[in-house]
Design a protein that fits this description.
Chain lengths: 297, 297, 297, 297
């Protein structure tokens, strides 16, 4: 397939590379060009403008354009700068990013109005999993559009989870899933502060939990970071965590869903950011819980 | 070993039966006698008073007395009614119950003052896991005491997790672990209300989560109950859940540990109880989150 | 003074009328024209476009333009529809509305860039107090701009509270004050649910509180509504309350300030809206607290 | 009247002194005797055992025994040490202390079983108000018992608020009222952290609030302490504040009433205590809100 790819951050690079390795023709663009160097060495073509990943005529028209950007704002700015206008049939826009439910609706409608197709495919996984093609992809969009990009999706993930045809459905699931992740971290953070205050180290406590009732990737991975107090370099930064929890709160507000856990996690994330935690992994919520309990003074 | 066993509720019956099957000589007592009928048919001896499970002289002295009671109050009432006075060397009191950190300290001291030994061995697992000897046991107490009951512990659990010598340590871990369970349920409850309000059923959403990031017993088990809205018969009742979360809040208060998640879960449990949920499984927290969002009206 | 006035809702009508009664020349505009009928009968001039309240030349140029609109969106739409472009020296835009801190900054800069002046003057008070010129006005803006509109401000309020020269400062105070109001209501709501569950009616309890420690307008007024369960017609609707609490949470997030009370109030407001409370006074938070406690079933 | 008085802390001394000044015959006891010195100089009689304040025979029998102790435990210990046994008709036990709803019920029954009468009269006010006889007293108990001590109550308070005949009713109201006080402080704490983070000092902000919507003793008094950051000497210590909020949470739990504000305040109080705040006034909750926002670093 001819694939355009936009957004070569830590996640995007691994994903784009897997598309390349799977034999797809890749045209890439990133805000800062050097991020594409390695991909170019691997055979990708670099373009100067984001819109150019779509191709210029029928013979170069991209089958799919993948975007992996940080948030609504970043995506909207690329769309407004020409990408949206350049999309047309039969290109499928595959949006891997975690964006708001509201913007997912708006964007899908705009893309479809252009004659192109839209597939939401937000991913669960951290950069090392992206590089290893071990992501879980939650996918929503019109059936034929999903079918047309299915091979490419299979190349970048461990598994594709179909989520229906309404384009924003995958985003709802992704946002809810990230909320559950944040909650898992916060619950380990509070529980560890509790055991520490009673003389039991976080590592000892979490070792038991993550080998028994909580022997799942979310707990094993973040539990290890908390046990080792190893919050840098961040796999997923506090600031991004806050963004995602705010996406949950915003969409919850629109649907009138009280979410006390989401509210409590948001406050803990703000507390972390107010104490210089912006560049730490969001598992550093454990520092917030411990600081509130006066444990490290 | 000669083993006394007190407390034949849903958990206790399975555990006691496994001790019997492992070849131990079992003497049992329960507040309501019929609960012991099946064990007696299996070879256990029934006594009329709890204290009698300790034996009456050197030749009948129990090597260990296991207790599996509902809470501090139930345990204290049995202790005060003669059990404490009847304990003496070399009997090891093995306390399987989830009790408060404060009472664990007091009780262990009292037992040791009697010349007997004390081992805390609270269990993670539900009645079916108790029956199948698949419990996880967190064990704390003096090393030689733990050693003396080790064979019996192995007979009732899948794994023994050593937690140190101070007797209350296992209780701290058990209470923290149950808080994490409650938090896992509440996070699924809120996330499901969120997805439902956006048109995605709890079953569809939780299927993805519990096969990926949250593929752990805690989430798989309770996720299934939430997906199927199957809250009765209860594996673990709301009222017991509230008791355990209150144990966490109480011990957190004594150690000055703020726990916003524990506070939020307590409020949700109270909400459930205020709406007739006392006999439901605590995974019915999902009903609370949905009701607050006006989803089932 | 020549004064333009935009926004004739329940608050705006009373305020505009007081400007008229104080002898100012009033030009009014409202999205739905009939709201201006009474003011026109009283001597105000009605214009067809919002921008026309500014006047068309030096001889008709408004000294001040007052705006009293519901939220950022309403205000921005009027600004974009020509009002901003029509503003020029020496007109002072007096913004009475409760808008976001972020938009207050942006808007003030845009108005000043037009050559006009900007004064923020959000008000504390309900429609009856607006009609009686009993509002409290928190005012920020350049000193000379405030001085030029001071007489008009005195005509509509009981007291002007100076809040400094940076234009958004009054909005910060207004938002913080509304958060305190919401918290006062929620605390009465929870306390009343508590006393009711223990057999003491809300009216009996609140009568004592609001005559002693809490003998202040916020508590007396809302306490009376709660005691009488009289939530309609609304003085201040749930939906507006939610808007204001979300303004607080948003500005708190930007400044990294955890606000657990604001989060809890938001959840209660969402709960109210999810149960048909959109048109009730926000003191109906008492219904939420009572419902959660199962009191009215 | 012949009055016994037990508990000469900061509150008790002022109250006892007002009883003395009103011409009552006062017999006093305090755990540490020197606290009674000034009262003795003023004409009170000091006894060696708490029970002796009841008098020894019909001619010396106290008409009323007032107790003003810190909590359930302190009161229970004095009761068990002989006071309960010494109470008999026609003495009225007047309990000024803030105790739990559960213990209020138990204690009243025990006192009545002795043939004596029981009146609950918890007070709102701080030590300076106690000294000035400006307390608000919430009073519950059998009508004739209340009548018999009415003169004495009038001597120590500004106003008596009748709360019905069931003895625990006054305690329910007192606990709910203290929860509202704690909530008022927390709301000022969060609002001030919010305005400070946006460049507006707590003093400037609170001056406006406490002269307008919140011009009530609770806000004026605690607002001043927050504005001046003057938390010592404490009028009401953090630790006592925590006790009272926990009384609310406990009685709320028994009646199945979710109280998210009470839970949030408890966490903030724990945070304060974990950071050395035990001896500060509970208005130092403002320090917690500011610390969480990173404001004083």
């Amino acid at each position: 397939m001819k694939i355009g790819f936009i957004g070569l951050g830590a996640m995007g690079q691994g994903i784009a590379n897997n598309l390349l390795k799977a034999g797809h023709e890749l045209t890439v663009w990133n805000r800062s060009a050097p991020a594409a160097d390695e991909l170019v060495r691997g055979g990708a073509r670099r373009v100067a403008l984001a819109a150019e990943v779509c191709g210029s005529d029928a013979s170069t028209r991209a089958d799919a354009v993948f975007v992996m950007l940080a948030d609504d704002r970043a995506l909207q700015s690329v769309m407004d700068a020409g990408l949206l206008a350049a999309l047309q049939a039969p290109t499928v826009l595959v949006n891997l990013a975690t964006i708001s439910v509201a913007y997912a609706r708006t964007l899908a409608a705009a893309v479809i109005a252009q004659g192109a197709a839209y597939v939401a495919a937000p991913v669960f996984g951290r950069p090392d999993m992206a590089a290893a093609a071990q992501l879980n992809l939650v996918v929503s969009g019109a059936d034929d559009a999903v079918t047309r990009v299915r091979l490419a999706l299979d190349a970048i993930g461990k598994k594709v989870w179909p989520a229906g045809t309404a384009p924003e459905r995958a985003n709802v699931i992704k946002i809810a899933g990230n909320f559950m992740l944040a909650s898992a971290i916060e619950s380990m953070a509070e529980a560890s502060a509790f055991t520490r205050a009673h003389g039991i180290g976080a590592a000892d406590f979490l070792a038991i939990m993550t080998q028994t009732l909580f022997a799942a990737p979310a707990y094993v991975g973040y539990g290890k970071l908390i046990a080792e107090q190893r919050y840098q370099p961040a796999g997923f930064k506090m600031a991004l965590g806050l963004k995602d929890v705010e996406l949950a709160l915003q969409a919850a507000g629109q649907a009138r869903v009280p979410m006390p856990f989401a509210a409590a996690v948001r406050d803990a994330l703000l507390d972390a950011l107010a104490h210089g935690g912006a560049d730490k992994d969001w598992s550093a919520l454990a520092e917030v819980a411990s600081r509130r309990a006066g444990l490290d003074e």
